[in-house]
């Protein structure tokens, strides 16, 4: 797996996970920075709601990395107003993610990751969004189990695809 971690962290919680992923998967770490700095959690959520209402969405200042040799992109963010922060969405839309495996990880005090996964599936078009990891004071996914699942997934998929004997057996069974 050739991977990269793209993330934004307001309070440092997402950054802790991002650094752990970068270390555990031996990959580059890129922090996505907004064009205008956000305040604390509540003021950030209020700003996001106001920005969306006014259709005055923020953008990013981070340079888009070359992802041509990358097959797996870990994407980390805090969940704001039940979704991926808008400037992170803008950043991802500008990345070439076709054919890549997107693995989201998110932190939040209240809202789960489900809505953010739906958003990522839409904005990351030709990519596969899988194995989301979520951390909050109320629900903590098991990092070790998640890491093992992510590490094993490509090898298992490759093994399943590369077994022509099994394909032949399936074809024979359907012909009878």
Instruction: Describe the largest sheet.
Output: 6 strands, parallel
Distance between the termini: 40 Å
Average pLDDT number: 84
Q: Please write the CATH class name.
A: Alpha Beta
CATH homologous superfamily placement: Flavodoxin domain
The portion of residues forming beta strands comes to 15-25%
Write the CATH architecture name: 3-Layer(aba) Sandwich
Number of strands: 6
Structural class: alpha/beta
Helix content: 40-55%
What is the CATH topology classification name? Answer: Rossmann fold
Secondary-structure element order, N to C: EHEHEHEHEEHH
Core attributes:
alpha/beta, disordered C terminus, Rossmann fold, 6 helices, 176 residues
Description:
It is a single chain. The protein is an alpha/beta fold and 176 residues long. It has one domain (3-143): Rossmann fold, CATH 3.40.50. It contains six helices and six strands, in the order βαβαβαβαββαα. Helix 4 links the parallel strand 4 and strand 5 (128-129). The longest helix has 19 residues, at 143-161. The chain starts with a strand and ends with a helix. Residues 155-176 have low confidence and may be disordered.
């Amino acid at each position: 797996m050739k991977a990269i971690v793209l993330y934004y962290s307001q309070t440092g919680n997402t950054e802790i996970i991002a650094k752990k992923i970068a270390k555990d998967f031996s990959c580059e770490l890129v922090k996505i920075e907004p064009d205008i700095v956000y305040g604390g959690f509540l003021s950030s959520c209020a700003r996001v709601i106001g920005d969306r209402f006014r259709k005055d969405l923020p953008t990013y200042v981070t340079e888009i990395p070359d992802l041509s040799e990358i097959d797996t992109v870990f994407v980390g963010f805090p969940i704001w107003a039940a979704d991926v922060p808008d400037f992170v969405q803008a950043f991802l839309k500008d990345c070439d993610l076709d054919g890549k495996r997107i693995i989201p990880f998110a932190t939040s005090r209240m809202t789960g990751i489900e809505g953010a996964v739906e958003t990522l599936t839409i904005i990351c078009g030709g990519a596969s969004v899988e194995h989301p990891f979520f951390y909050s004071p109320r629900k903590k996914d098991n990092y070790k189990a998640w890491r093992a699942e992510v590490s094993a997934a490509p090898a298992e998929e490759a093994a399943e695809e590369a077994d022509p004997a099994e394909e032949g057996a399936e074809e024979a069974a359907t012909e009878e």
